Amino acid sequence: MEISDLTQVHTIGYRLQEVKVTFNHDIKVNASEVSIEAKQGEILSIPRWVADVMESEKLVDVQDTDMIVALKQALVKENVQGDFDLSTLDSDFFIKVRSYMKRLPPQDRDKVESMLNTLMRKRQGKIIRLADSSKMTSDLAKKLSIEERVLFDSIHMKSSNFKKQILGDKK
């Protein structure tokens, strides 16, 4: 499966998850699969995709994890690890960060994107070294995001094929 396909599937799953929102107005909505009735100030859990639409119309405030804090923590944890050891990220970490970034003003988005690039470069370097030298283990898989798992598998396969071309079937 291509990385974009896999990410898209996981993004759909993420958007179907429930998130807490605070209603800014009294509201009553009945649509095909969604029925919401809430008073101003009330807090309810609703599907994330509905919350995103309602937030864009200023009807709700989404009470979501501050992914800037999570990104900073991930960067600190990654810096503490050695060159061949990865810190653990949630499998949907990058999906959450991208979703969070869409709601930020442009000037804040640039700062977050810079931190995200730093984290990605650091982890990518480690993944390349690990994928070149060993197979995926269950312990390692738990530490990687879904995008990173696809990257690891792709690099490992290409590296193995390269070695076979040079050395033949002997390892």
Written account of the structure:
The chain has helices spanning 3-16, 48-56, 67-80, 93-102, 106-133, 138-143, 146-167; strands spanning 18-23, 27-30, 35-38, 43-47, 60-63. The mean pLDDT is 90. Strands 4-1-5 form a three-stranded antiparallel sheet, with helices on one face. Strand 2 and strand 3 (35-38) form a beta hairpin. It folds into two domains: 17-63, Ribosomal Protein L9, domain 1, CATH 3.40.5; 67-167, Methane Monooxygenase Hydroxylase, Chain G, domain 1 (Up-down Bundle). The protein has seven helices and five strands. It is of the alpha+beta class.
Could you name the ranges where pLDDT drops below 50 across 5 or more consecutive residues?
Answer: none
Shape: elongated
Distance between the termini: 27 Å
Q: What structural class should be given to the helix and strand makeup?
A: alpha+beta
Domain unit count: 2
Count of DSSP-assigned helices? 7
CATH fold-type name of the largest domain: Methane Monooxygenase Hydroxylase, Chain G, domain 1
Largest sheet report: 3 strands, antiparallel
Query: What's the mean pLDDT score?
Result: 90
Number of strands: 5
What is the helix fraction of residues, given as a range?
55-70%
The succession of helices and strands, N to C, reads HEEEEHEHHHHH
Query: What would CATH call the class of the largest domain?
Result: Mainly Alpha
- Radius of gyration from CA coordinates: 20 Å
- For the biggest β-sheet, the strand order reads 4-1-5
Strand content: 5-15%
Overall CATH architecture of the largest domain: Up-down Bundle
